[in-house]
Amino acid sequence: MNKIDLQLFADESPETISGKKLVYLFRVAEDSKTENAGALAFVTENERTTSKDADSTQTKDGNVRTPGAAEIEITSTSLLPKGDKMIDKLESAMLNDKLVECWEVNLAEPGSSANSGKYKSKYYQGYITELGISSNAEDNVEVSITYGANGQGADGYATLTDEQKEIASYVYKDVIKESGE
Fold first, then answer.
1. Model confidence, pTM
2. Residue 78 domain flag
3. Mind telling me which Pfam families this protein's record contains (predicted)?
């Protein structure tokens, strides 16, 4: 019979991460000096998939598998807001074969000491490989984007603007007028 070590959870209770806390930001790479990365509005679902094909060679002793290169794909589904510019930029980048940057930011894991004020993230460069718009008579218009990353990406910590932080949750505003600062 297998024993379970309950001490694994004694010091620190495991905590799950809400789906709202894992966000994706995009930017057309050529705009990196003039624009911050932005998020799709009204995202209903994101997914990052890593896959790897493997060739199989039959030998007298059995099959030998040789792994191929990993492929990373990020999909995002959202509702289309009126006047949205981000979808237009990403569609234009796809049609014109422009490199797109993507950050997967985990707002549930802020950095510590040297990375204070930043959030754990993964950074990718790649291309929009698919963009679909679906309009059902009874529902809102839905947009689906597929992003194919070049290489494996890089781990780090992202600095977010207040606007980017609002992606995951509303920030409290007071009832008095806002200062112009």
1. 0.80
2. yes
3. Phage_tail_2
Q: Is residue 178 part of a domain?
A: no
126 close to 147: Cβ distance less than 8 angstroms = yes
| Nearest one of 72, 74, 77 to 132, comparing CA atoms | 77
Domain annotation covers residue 170: no
Instruction: Give strand pairing partners of 42.
Output: none
Q: How many domains would you assign to the chain?
A: 1
Confidence tier at 68 by pLDDT (50, 70, 90): confident
At residue 20, the pLDDT reads: 84
Q: Which domain holds residue 85?
A: 19-165
| Among the listed residues 102, 179, 105, the one whose alpha carbon sits nearest the alpha carbon of residue 145 | 102
Distance CA 15, CA 142 (A): 31
pLDDT digits (tens, 9 = 90+) for 113-143: 888 889 999 999 999 999 999 998 989 999 9
Count of other CB atoms within 10 angstroms of residue 65: 8
Distance CA 181, CA 34 (A): 22
Q: Tell me whether residue 1 is in a domain.
A: no
According to DSSP, residue 17 is labeled: -
